[in-house]
Amino acid sequence: MSEVQEPDTAQSSVHYGFVPVFATCCLWWGLVGVALISKEVHAGRPNVVLLLSDDLGWKDIGCYGGPVRTPPLDRLAREGTRFTDFYSGAAVCSSSRAVLLTGRTNLRCSIYSWINDQDQHCHLPTSEVTLAEVLRAQPTTHVHRFESRYRSPFDAFVYMNRIPIEPEALEDQRSLASRIESRLANQKGRVQIKLPRVMNREAYEGFKLAAGIDFDNTSCFTCHHLPAFGREHRDLSVPTLRNRTYTRKQLHNSLDSEAHNEISIDEPTADRLLAFLLTLSDVADADFRPLILNATVLDTYTVDEVFDLLAYLQFSGVGQ
Questions:
Q1: CB pairs under 8 A, 24+ apart, for 270-273?
Q2: What's the farthest any 2 CA atoms get from each other in the chain?
Q3: Is 34's pLDDT higher than 60?
């Protein structure tokens, strides 16, 4: 991209940089110009304008040797960067735009074809993160679309896997736990459970245990409400589980108390729960983003599940 000239700091702390980006897609709507960042930006942060064109051949305009005279575009190409290879993410307009804006395949971001409101009533989900939001990151953590006040490895896990931990209107904690279970099942089906370095398989299984998933439908969130893992009430206050020091002995003493007399778990299960609780301690703002950048993908399938899958593939003749 072209180099942005630094402003005269003696005159203004704001400048209007511009980075030209070209993309030609098979769009059957007209020329669309989308301004991705506000006009006023801090020094050193350029404006980005994305231009999409309908039915534009790669060799139509002047800077590519085409017959159509386009002096302004030629200048942008001359002073910026001219790309010679570009592949559309999909064969139709709406889907290719969704790919370009999100960096995800159109099937992942729920735009399966061109949008026709009369028949589909389909739009880009608000949960999708667009290029504009990535460029407008949260100022202290430098993470886009992150509004939580918590900074723990667990919250990095929640952010990466888009797990709902905020109850919706009139939703109780049991219903929220059911939404969490559905989201984890969706991510597991895509083999896309992502874990920050501090969070391992045991901690992940401990979170499922706390949510009541695969554990007799008993959820810790019934009392320790998300997202604070605690609650303040005039009749019953439940202390938060966040930012506390835990040992195996302390956990066993807590589970043996009258408040947890209906819960009975064995030693390995208690270890998984302890591993999860240790992910609830906040880190510094500067250390939160690396938790996300250095995440790994969890192999969510057990040995038995792998053998079941292989047996199914052999029975069905797939790959023969």
A1: 271/202, 272/202, 272/203, 272/205, 272/206, 272/209, 273/206, 273/209, 273/210
A2: 82
A3: no
222-271 pLDDT, tens digit per residue, is 888 889 998 866 566 788 999 988 888 888 888 777 777 677 778 888 89
What are the sequence ranges of the domains in the chain? 14-135, 153-297
State the pTM of this model: 0.60
The predicted structure's pLDDT at residue 233: 62
CATH number of 153-297: 1.10.760
